From TrEMBL:
Residues 245-276 form the C3H1-type domain. The lineage of its organism: Eukaryota, Metazoa, Chordata, Craniata, Vertebrata. It comes from the Eukaryota. This is ZC12D ribonuclease. Pfam families: RNase_Zc3h12a (PF11977), UBA_6 (PF18039). PROSITE patterns: ZF_C3H1. A zinc finger (C3H1-type) spans 245-276. GO terms for molecular function: hydrolase activity; mRNA binding; RNA endonuclease activity; zinc ion binding. Its cofactor is Mg(2+).
Length: 309
């Protein structure tokens, strides 16, 4: 009983010494509520509250740069997210849902598929932006499927609603695309959308560069979320390097020479020669020059030795 109570209050964050002292005073059969009251009366605080009471060591720094310096942390961002090697993910919820619903239905299941895909890869910072009016009951002109998924993602602190309100019967909606680009830009993350945000590119030149280099497009194939393996084209980075803060350079693969041992290019050949690993890769002409120079040099040394001093 003593051990079970000790473990219970340790999980709440209280120190073992304070818990043992209270149990000695009240007895081992004391109720948990009584033990908690006594801990509060003694002034004992959980470790989480003590850490919050201490002065914060964070310094306010200017945001708005795309650098990945470890000292620049976004306020409110978890340390686990900052130490992760994967970039934050910001999903355009409306774009993903309408793409999954064939531009006819706002399919919330598409958002869930995208979130699950990034979770399986190990991403911990995932944010989905959806207008607030999507919480309202669906209408004929704007049907919504699987609306309960939005509530579940909101409880998991993944879904964020952009503000909207009604003024004299008219809905006033904030521009959710600006939220998406701004959060992705400040967290140095990746935007998941098939939208090019051309209006925002013209609005801010820094956003223009960021959207061009950090926009991840996608497709849905049989209820499967599929981003491209080459997000920036054939000559750009791979998908793994695109989503990583520390990209890994690809291994250099040498193509074997089509001429094999008959190649006469020597060290000027751009292809791979396995038979020349431990040989000086000289061209045929250079090898002949080297062979002709060696006997001439030996003959001159012999003549010098034979000459009288």
């Amino acid at each position: 009983v003593h051990q079970s109570k000790l473990d219970f209050f340790c999980k709440l964050g209280y120190g073992k010494q304070d818990i043992c002292r209270v149990l000695e005073n009240l007895g081992q059969e004391a109720l948990e509520d009584d033990v908690l009251k006594e801990l509060i009366r003694m002034g004992s605080k959980p470790q989480a509250l003590e850490n919050q009471a201490q002065p914060s060591q964070l310094k306010l720094v200017a945001r708005g740069t795309c650098s990945t310096t470890p000292g620049l942390k976004w306020l409110g961002e978890d340390e686990s997210d900052a130490s992760s090697s994967l970039r934050p993910i910001v999903i355009d919820g409306s774009n993903v849902a309408m793409s999954h619903g064939n531009k006819e239905v706002f399919s919330c299941w598409g958002i869930q598929l995208a979130v699950d895909w990034f979770r399986e890869r190990g991403h911990t910072y995932i944010k989905v932006f959806v207008p607030l009016w999507r919480k309202e009951p669906p209408r004929q002109d704007s049907p919504i499927a699987d609306q309960h998924i939005l509530e579940e993602l909101e409880k998991q602190s993944i879904l964020v609603y952009t503000p909207s309100r009604k003024v004299k019967g008219k809905r006033v909606v904030c521009y959710d695309d600006r939220y998406i680009v701004k959060v992705a830009y400040e967290t140095d993350g990746v935007i998941v959308s098939n939208d090019h945000y051309r209006d925002l590119q013209n609005e801010n030149p820094e956003w223009k560069w960021f959207i061009e280099h950090r926009l991840l497009m996608y497709s849905f194939v049989s209820n499967r979320f599929m981003p491209p393996d080459d997000p920036l084209g054939r000559h750009g980075p791979t998908l793994s390097n695109f989503l990583s803060k520390k990209p890994v350079p690809p291994e250099k693969k040498w193509q074997p020479c089509p001429y094999g041992k008959k190649c006469t290019y020597g060290n000027k050949c751009k292809f791979y020669h396995p038979e020349r690993l431990h040989q000086a890769q000289l061209s045929v002409a250079d090898e002949l020059r080297a062979k002709t120079k060696v006997p001439l040099a030996l003959g001159r040394e012999e003549e010098r030795c034979q000459c009288p001093p």
